[in-house]
Specification:
Shape: globular
Distance between the termini: 34 Å
Radius of gyration: 19 Å
Low-confidence stretches: none
Bound molecules: nicotinamide-adenine-dinucleotide, uridine-5'-diphosphate
Largest sheet: 7 strands, parallel
Strand order of the largest sheet: 3-2-1-4-5-6-11
Strand content: 15-25%
Structural class: alpha/beta
Helix content: 40-55%
Length: about 300
């Protein structure tokens, strides 16, 4: 079962699980997910999708739950911050209650945002984070932190087989063109010949993981023995500045777009780069898709989507 199964990462995960021969139930309220994301799966005999909001109880049978439901883009998670927090807290309680009842393994899609605006240059899982509890990003960050607490307490209190991965910036086909995240924004702006909006001075850094690599990491985590609970960082440690990302995307698209500066959003982390030693040791996992290769595939997806929307 994949909550958030019609979303960006969730749809790739469903596809991969089906390819591996599993029966898959995707659960989604379509807040940021879409039916086109799973269009290719709807006819698959082993695939089922259910429109459902995980803040409400759900009684189904399953042996493995990936809890991905939660908007990940700042534009969307800040549009309804109370619902975002409810999704992480009430939603996690319901999915943990379900896992407890049926004895399923449950994997939580946590985030590098639990580290907030971090002091260490590279973040490993022992770092407790520097998060503003009352800012505009808090509904997401603190929700995900509370979810980690719930996962840890269901394990301690009820013996539930919980696993936490902390996902760092992930990109690829099926990101929403309007989701406001940097990769989708820059590619759409470059393809349309619009100005590329650099927030702040563009010297802030991120490290981007291609979605196929991320899905492989999620699967490996789900397959670990019961005593492995995480958290485990999943991300690509190839760090670069936002300005360098913009330049790369301009080159790859052959765009004539110019860079323009816009104000830096509140609480925007200065840097983000995963230490993936733990994922290497525990899961024998590391990313294999270089940024340029992943960007080329993502650009091709956005080009197709643009062409389709212009044609219709
Ligand atoms: P996404 O917004 O594309 O996917 C989230 C999915 O959850 C959507 O399909 C949405 O409709 C669904 N959803 C939201 N609230 C729900 C609710 N209450 N009930 C049922 N469904 C609900 O985002 P994504 O990038 O695919 O992220 C998937 C997960 O991974 C999220 O939990 C996110 O926090 C986490 N994550 C993503 C990234 C990233 O870079 N993409 C980084 C860190 C963590
Ligand atoms: N829950 C659910 N599906 C299940 C089992 C439980 O949605 O198959 C929900 C249930 O509504 C409950 C929550 O999960 O509110 C937590 O369940 P748990 O058994 O941990 O606690 P309790 O029922 O005591 O609140
Ligand atoms: N960003 C930017 N221009 C944009 C969108 C984002 O400069 O059009 C910056 C943003 O301020 C942040 C970085 O890119 O420093 C990554 O932003 P995103 O929202 O993709 O992810 P997150 O901040 O959650 O890592």
């Amino acid at each position: 079962m994949v909550t958030g199964g019609a979303g960006f990462i969730g749809s790739h995960l469903c596809e991969r699980l089906l390819a591996d021969g599993h029966e898959v139930l995707a659960v989604d309220n379509y807040y940021t997910g879409t039916r086109p994301n799973i269009r290719g799966l709807l006819e698959h005999p082993m695939f089922e999708v259910m429109r459902h909001d995980i803040t409400m109880p759900l009684y189904v049978e399953t042996d493995l739950i990936f809890n991905l439901a939660c908007p990940a883009s700042p534009v969307y998670y800040q549009r309804d911050p109370v619902q975002t927090l409810k999704t992480s807290v009430h939603g996690s309680i319901n999915m943990l209650g379900l896992a407890k009842r049926v004895g399923a393994t449950i994997v939580q899609a946590s985030t590098s945002e639990v580290y907030g605006d971090p002091e260490p240059v590279v973040q490993d899982e022992t770092y407790w984070g520097r998060v503003n509890p009352i800012g505009i990003r808090s509904c997401y960050d603190e929700g995900k932190r509370a979810a980690e607490t719930l996962f840890s307490d269901y394990r301690r209190q009820h013996g539930t087989d919980t696993k936490i991965v902390r996902i760092f910036n992930t990109y690829g086909p099926r990101m929403r063109p309007d989701d406001g995240r940097v990769v989708s924004n820059f590619i759409m702006q470059a393809l349309r010949g619009e100005d590329i909006t650099i927030y702040g001075d563009g010297a802030q850094s991120r490290a981007f993981c291609f979605v196929d690599d991320l899905v492989e990491g999620l699967l490996r985590m789900s397959d670990t023995p019961r005593d492995v609970s995480g958290p485990v960082n999943l991300g690509n440690p190839a760090e670069l500045t936002i300005r360098d990302l913009a330049t790369k995307i301009i080159t790859l698209t052959g765009s004539s777009s110019k860079l323009v500066a816009e104000p830096l959003p509140e609480d925007d982390p200065r840097q983000r780069c995963p230490d993936i030693t733990k994922a290497k040791d525990l899961l024998d996992w590391e990313p294999t898709v270089p940024l340029e290769q992943g960007l080329v595939r993502t650009i091709a997806y956005f080009e197709e989507s643009l062409a389709a929307s212009t044609a219709s």
